[in-house]
Specification:
The protein has 169 residues and is an alpha/beta fold. 43% of the residues lie in helices and 15% in strands. The protein has five helices and four strands. The chain has a four-stranded mixed sheet, with helices on both faces. Helix 1 packs across helix 5, helix 3 crosses helix 4 and helix 4 packs across helix 5. The radius of gyration is 15 Å and the shape is globular. The N and C termini lie far apart (33 Å).
């Protein structure tokens, strides 16, 4: 497993590289994939202006957002791909930090959630309807609790805040 982290603007990315790698490994394990397999994930940190441009271009929403995901290869094709390129997760730490308090989170907690959220999009999760959103949120919570255990934190203290629905964008 390779996690390629890009922070060209030297932003405060809120998370350490080791934790991002653990998040990818936990997500792969939760999805039944071997974290030691030849899988690549790219995680990039960008300023609000760049995130706004990406959001406008790809989603038609002319505003910065917290996270965007761009899937490449699906996990179901893991046997045929070497390496398997899951895709890119783009995070905007300034937006994440600004919204964290609204959700009752610290900026670091919110960044963890947005990273896991973005990673789950890479493997096919979405939240366009209530059932899909509930499934995605359940998986987010499980992964975030596993990450808490790895950090030595109480997993019972992990919450994911209000639910996300694309229909409200």
């Amino acid at each position: 497993m390779r996690v390629l982290i890009s922070n060209d603007d030297g932003l405060d990315i809120l998370l350490q590289a080791e934790e991002m790698e653990q998040a990818v490994a936990c997500m792969l394990k939760a999805e039944g994939a071997d974290p030691s397999s030849d899988v690549e994930v790219s995680i990039s940190f960008v300023r609000p202006a760049e995130m706004r441009a990406l959001n406008a271009s790809w989603r038609g929403i002319d505003a910065p957002t917290d996270v965007l995901s761009f899937e490449c290869d699906g996990l179901d094709g893991a046997e045929e791909q070497d390496p398997l390129e899951l895709g890119d997760v783009i995070l905007c730490p300034e937006v994440i930090a600004a919204q964290a308090a609204d959700f009752g989170n610290t900026p670091v907690e919110e960044c963890r959630l947005m990273l896991v959220h973005g990673l789950l999009h890479l493997v096919g999760y979405d939240h366009m309807n209530e059932d899909d959103a509930a499934e995605m949120e359940e998986r987010e919570l499980a992964i975030l609790r596993e990450l808490a255990v790895l950090r030595g934190d109480d997993p019972a203290g992990v919450r994911i805040g209000p639910v996300t629905r694309h229909e409200y964008d």
